[in-house]
Specification:
single chain; alpha+beta; five-stranded mixed beta sheet; 4 helices; 5 strands; about 30% helix
């Protein structure tokens, strides 16, 4: 996905749906890793006083190339043969990694953002 307008719209919608569940003063910054073919990786970092900034990184050929370059705990080893589809979610200490494996409009829509947030919230442990 290299359409920054579509990506930015998704990020804005994601924040809109996710922010009401955060304590006051907790912000969501994002790092966007666009892909020249299909998909993208979105890294949302949560933190006290974090600004709602978006940082676009240079495009890479595939999602797998990005996963080899960034710190992540979802997949390891030889991932060249892995094909990601839909939205894959990895939650770590203070960040959420969304691996979007395709450019289907439904994955990047307002409804897609709402569904992704709902999936994240339903997997969080109850306090």
């Amino acid at each position: 996905m290299q359409d920054n307008k579509t990506i930015q719209s998704y990020i804005n919608n994601f924040r809109r749906y996710f922010a009401p569940y955060l304590k006051p003063g907790i912000g969501i910054s994002s790092k966007i890793f666009p892909v020249k073919s299909e998909g993208a990786i979105l890294e949302f970092s949560l933190g006290s006083g974090a600004k709602n900034d978006d940082e676009y990184m240079p495009s890479e050929e595939t999602v797998n190339v990005i996963l080899k370059k960034i710190e992540q705990n979802l997949v390891g080893g030889n991932i060249d043969a892995i094909k990601f589809g839909g939205t894959n979610i990895s939650m770590e200490r203070d960040r959420i990694l969304l691996i979007k494996g395709e450019d289907a409009p439904s994955e990047w829509s307002d409804e897609g953002a709402r569904k992704d947030v709902k999936r994240i919230l339903t997997t969080l442990p109850k306090r």
